[in-house]
Structure formats: C-alpha cells, structure tokens
Design goal:
Blueprint lengths: L6 E5 L3 H11 L3 E6 L3 E6 L2 E6 L1 H4 L20 E5 L2 H13 L4 E6 L5 E6 L5 E5 L8
Parallel strand pairs: 1-4, 5-8
Antiparallel strand pairs: 2-3, 3-4, 6-7, 7-8
C-alpha cells in the first residue's frame, strides 16, 4: 500500500545554479551530487531530486544501477510544506536573493501559498499543509 511520496524530481540543465539555489537560497541540505547528472537534497522526511535531463535520458552503463532513462523538458512544479509563520521569513529571504514572488495568496480554505521560480524555470510553491487538510 502506498504510504506517501518518498522523493520528488525536478529537472535543470545547470546543476551548479540549482545547487546554489536549493542549498544556498532555500537552505536545503545537500545529500549527494554526481557530477553533471544530478544533485539531491533532504527536504523534511523526503528527498528532492534535481536531474540534468540531458544526462538522465541516456541509458545506464553496464556497471551502473539499472535505473531506466527518464527526464522531461520544460518547467515542472513542486510544492514545499511550510508553516504560515515561516512564509514571511522565506519571502524576505527570496526577495534578498533577487527571486521574484509570482503570487502570494490565501486559498478558499485559508491556507497561504507563495509561488516563485528556480533558476531552471521550475514553478515552486510553498504552502501551509492545511491546503490539503494536513496538519
């Protein structure tokens, strides 16, 4: 039975910019970097995977783990769980880093979300868990 989401993947051609953004600006703990193929970050109880699509679309070599080729082109979306009290602090940190806030609003159920983009153009959202009736 499915228990939840273990990892979420986004794609970025420039892993150096992604590493600086997710590690530096958002403050996520880097777990692993494998050259120009991927960089992984701890995100609460899960893992955020940032893949270079040019590399992950290649079939694995004979000595690599048998992970099938995968990837996508274009912007993706991920939503990070954050407390309402922390949204203003994050918004300030993003503003200082020159990251534009595209939207900041309250959903009909009262949950607040902010939207912004990473350097690869992925749409990121930070929202209170009550958005999905999770506390």
């Amino acid at each position: 039975m499915i228990e939840g989401i273990l990892e979420t993947a986004l794609y970025a051609d420039d892993l150096d910019a992604a590493e600086a953004f997710y590690g530096g600006v958002l403050g996520l703990e880097k777990v692993l970097r494998a050259g120009n193929r991927h960089v992984f970050f701890r995100c609460g109880p899960g893992i955020l995977l940032i893949f270079n699509p040019a590399e992950t679309m290649k079939p694995p070599s004979r000595d690599a783990l048998p992970v099938p080729p995968h990837g996508t082109r274009g912007a993706g979306h991920a939503c990070f769980r954050i407390s309402g009290e922390a949204i203003d602090r994050l918004r300030e940190k993003l503003n200082k880093a020159g990251v534009a806030i595209e939207s900041d609003f309250h959903w009909p159920n009262g949950a607040r979300s902010i939207y912004f983009r990473d350097p690869a153009g992925n749409s990121l959202e930070c929202a209170e868990p009550k958005l999905w009736n999770i506390e």
